[in-house]
Design a protein that fits this description.
mainly beta, 5-stranded antiparallel sheet, elongated
Protein backbone atom coordinates (compact mmCIF):
# COMPACT_ATOMS: atom_id res chain seq x y z
CA UNK A 1 0.00 0.00 0.00
CA UNK A 2 1.26 3.46 -0.90
CA UNK A 3 -1.46 6.08 -0.57
CA UNK A 4 0.33 8.77 -2.57
CA UNK A 5 0.32 6.40 -5.58
CA UNK A 6 -3.48 6.39 -5.73
CA UNK A 7 -4.86 6.16 -9.25
CA UNK A 8 -1.56 5.19 -10.94
CA UNK A 9 -3.02 1.80 -11.91
CA UNK A 10 0.15 -0.29 -11.63
CA UNK A 11 3.58 -0.27 -10.05
CA UNK A 12 6.70 -2.26 -10.88
CA UNK A 13 8.51 -3.83 -7.94
CA UNK A 14 11.97 -5.39 -8.11
CA UNK A 15 12.51 -8.48 -6.00
CA UNK A 16 16.08 -9.44 -5.13
CA UNK A 17 17.28 -12.55 -3.32
CA UNK A 18 20.55 -12.51 -1.44
CA UNK A 19 21.30 -15.73 -3.36
CA UNK A 20 21.52 -13.86 -6.66
CA UNK A 21 18.09 -13.88 -8.29
CA UNK A 22 16.41 -10.65 -9.37
CA UNK A 23 12.93 -10.41 -10.89
CA UNK A 24 10.46 -7.64 -11.66
CA UNK A 25 6.77 -8.04 -10.90
CA UNK A 26 4.06 -5.58 -11.91
CA UNK A 27 1.53 -4.94 -9.18
CA UNK A 28 -1.99 -3.82 -10.07
CA UNK A 29 -3.93 -1.28 -8.05
CA UNK A 30 -7.11 -2.66 -6.54
CA UNK A 31 -10.40 -1.05 -7.49
CA UNK A 32 -11.74 -1.20 -3.94
CA UNK A 33 -8.81 0.49 -2.17
CA UNK A 34 -6.91 2.96 -4.30
CA UNK A 35 -3.23 2.99 -3.43
CA UNK A 36 -3.29 -0.71 -2.56
CA UNK A 37 -1.48 -2.95 -5.04
CA UNK A 38 -1.50 -6.71 -5.51
CA UNK A 39 0.37 -9.12 -7.70
CA UNK A 40 1.88 -12.57 -7.86
CA UNK A 41 5.14 -14.23 -8.71
CA UNK A 42 6.02 -17.89 -8.51
CA UNK A 43 8.68 -18.61 -5.88
CA UNK A 44 10.67 -21.83 -6.12
CA UNK A 45 13.24 -23.44 -3.87
CA UNK A 46 15.82 -23.89 -6.65
CA UNK A 47 19.00 -22.35 -8.00
CA UNK A 48 18.74 -18.74 -9.21
CA UNK A 49 18.05 -17.94 -12.88
CA UNK A 50 17.82 -14.12 -12.99
CA UNK A 51 15.20 -12.61 -15.28
CA UNK A 52 13.16 -15.76 -15.99
CA UNK A 53 9.99 -14.46 -14.26
CA UNK A 54 10.30 -16.98 -11.41
CA UNK A 55 11.81 -15.97 -8.09
CA UNK A 56 14.27 -18.63 -6.99
CA UNK A 57 15.31 -18.69 -3.35
CA UNK A 58 16.58 -21.07 -0.72
CA UNK A 59 14.91 -21.44 2.64
CA UNK A 60 15.85 -18.57 4.96
CA UNK A 61 17.31 -16.30 2.29
CA UNK A 62 16.41 -12.61 2.43
CA UNK A 63 14.04 -11.15 -0.16
CA UNK A 64 14.35 -7.43 -0.83
CA UNK A 65 11.33 -5.78 -2.47
CA UNK A 66 11.93 -2.26 -3.75
CA UNK A 67 10.23 0.23 -6.02
CA UNK A 68 10.72 3.76 -7.22
CA UNK A 69 8.10 5.99 -5.66
CA UNK A 70 7.38 8.71 -8.23
CA UNK A 71 5.87 11.00 -5.58
CA UNK A 72 6.22 10.39 -1.85
CA UNK A 73 3.38 12.78 -1.04
CA UNK A 74 5.79 15.30 0.50
CA UNK A 75 7.02 16.82 -2.75
CA UNK A 76 9.96 14.42 -3.11
CA UNK A 77 10.17 12.56 -6.41
CA UNK A 78 11.87 9.33 -7.40
CA UNK A 79 12.38 8.02 -3.85
CA UNK A 80 13.29 4.34 -3.45
CA UNK A 81 11.09 2.40 -1.03
CA UNK A 82 11.97 -1.05 0.18
CA UNK A 83 11.02 -3.86 2.52
CA UNK A 84 12.58 -7.21 3.35
CA UNK A 85 11.26 -10.65 4.12
CA UNK A 86 12.58 -14.19 4.29
CA UNK A 87 11.90 -17.16 2.04
CA UNK A 88 10.14 -19.89 3.99
CA UNK A 89 9.99 -23.40 2.55
CA UNK A 90 10.27 -25.27 5.88
CA UNK A 91 7.17 -26.68 7.54
CA UNK A 92 6.53 -25.94 11.20
CA UNK A 93 7.78 -28.39 13.81
CA UNK A 94 6.14 -29.58 17.02
CA UNK A 95 8.54 -28.93 19.89
CA UNK A 96 6.39 -30.15 22.77
CA UNK A 97 3.04 -31.86 23.38
CA UNK A 98 1.24 -31.98 26.73
CA UNK A 99 -2.21 -33.48 27.32
CA UNK A 100 -4.47 -32.65 30.25
CA UNK A 101 -7.47 -34.95 30.63
CA UNK A 102 -10.49 -33.92 32.69
CA UNK A 103 -13.24 -36.51 32.49
CA UNK A 104 -14.38 -36.73 28.89
CA UNK A 105 -12.49 -33.62 27.77
CA UNK A 106 -8.82 -33.36 26.87
CA UNK A 107 -6.82 -30.18 26.34
CA UNK A 108 -3.88 -30.72 24.03
CA UNK A 109 -1.19 -28.08 24.47
CA UNK A 110 1.40 -27.73 21.72
CA UNK A 111 4.52 -25.66 21.27
CA UNK A 112 5.66 -25.11 17.67
CA UNK A 113 8.87 -23.58 16.35
CA UNK A 114 7.03 -20.84 14.46
CA UNK A 115 3.52 -19.37 14.34
CA UNK A 116 1.21 -21.95 12.78
CA UNK A 117 -2.36 -23.15 12.62
CA UNK A 118 -2.81 -26.47 14.44
CA UNK A 119 -5.38 -29.21 13.99
CA UNK A 120 -5.72 -32.28 16.18
CA UNK A 121 -6.89 -35.31 14.19
CA UNK A 122 -7.94 -38.10 16.51
CA UNK A 123 -9.58 -41.50 16.81
CA UNK A 124 -10.19 -44.28 19.33
CA UNK A 125 -8.34 -46.58 16.90
CA UNK A 126 -4.54 -46.66 17.00
CA UNK A 127 -3.26 -46.02 13.49
CA UNK A 128 -6.46 -44.24 12.47
CA UNK A 129 -8.24 -43.29 10.44
CA UNK A 130 -8.10 -39.99 12.31
CA UNK A 131 -11.45 -38.76 11.06
CA UNK A 132 -12.34 -36.59 14.06
CA UNK A 133 -10.71 -33.16 14.25
CA UNK A 134 -10.51 -30.00 16.34
CA UNK A 135 -8.60 -26.97 15.12
CA UNK A 136 -7.84 -23.34 15.77
CA UNK A 137 -8.20 -20.28 13.59
CA UNK A 138 -5.22 -18.10 14.57
CA UNK A 139 -1.51 -18.47 13.94
CA UNK A 140 0.42 -19.05 17.16
CA UNK A 141 3.45 -20.83 18.62
CA UNK A 142 1.47 -21.83 21.71
CA UNK A 143 -1.63 -23.90 21.05
CA UNK A 144 -4.33 -25.13 23.41
CA UNK A 145 -6.98 -27.23 21.69
CA UNK A 146 -9.89 -28.77 23.57
CA UNK A 147 -11.25 -32.14 22.48
CA UNK A 148 -14.57 -32.85 24.16
CA UNK A 149 -17.48 -35.27 24.02
CA UNK A 150 -15.13 -38.22 24.42
CA UNK A 151 -16.10 -41.62 25.82
CA UNK A 152 -15.07 -42.53 29.37
CA UNK A 153 -12.25 -45.02 30.03
CA UNK A 154 -11.16 -44.91 26.40
CA UNK A 155 -7.76 -44.65 24.77
CA UNK A 156 -7.54 -41.95 22.11
CA UNK A 157 -4.83 -41.52 19.50
CA UNK A 158 -4.00 -38.37 17.60
CA UNK A 159 -1.69 -36.70 15.13
CA UNK A 160 -1.08 -32.98 14.70
CA UNK A 161 -1.53 -31.17 11.38
CA UNK A 162 0.34 -27.84 11.17
CA UNK A 163 0.27 -25.06 8.57
CA UNK A 164 2.48 -21.98 8.79
CA UNK A 165 1.81 -18.50 7.37
CA UNK A 166 3.66 -19.39 4.15
CA UNK A 167 1.38 -22.41 3.58
CA UNK A 168 3.98 -25.04 4.52
CA UNK A 169 2.25 -28.07 6.01
CA UNK A 170 3.28 -31.07 8.06
CA UNK A 171 1.74 -33.95 9.98
CA UNK A 172 3.41 -34.66 13.32
CA UNK A 173 3.30 -37.77 15.42
CA UNK A 174 5.31 -39.20 18.30
CA UNK A 175 8.38 -40.70 16.54
CA UNK A 176 6.33 -42.75 14.07
CA UNK A 177 3.50 -43.52 16.49
CA UNK A 178 0.40 -41.45 17.19
CA UNK A 179 0.26 -39.41 20.38
CA UNK A 180 -2.21 -40.88 22.87
CA UNK A 181 -4.16 -40.28 26.07
CA UNK A 182 -6.82 -42.08 28.11
CA UNK A 183 -10.02 -40.54 29.44
Amino acid sequence: ADWDLRNVGSQEVTLEIDGGDEEVVTLTETEVSLGVFTGEILVQNTAAIPGDGVLQAQDGQSILARYLDADDGLGNTDQWRQATSQADFSPPVVLDVQVQVRGVTATINLLTDEPALAEIRYSAISGGPYDLAESETQLSELHGIDVSGLNTQTNYYFIVALTDAAGNQTLADDAGQPYSFKT
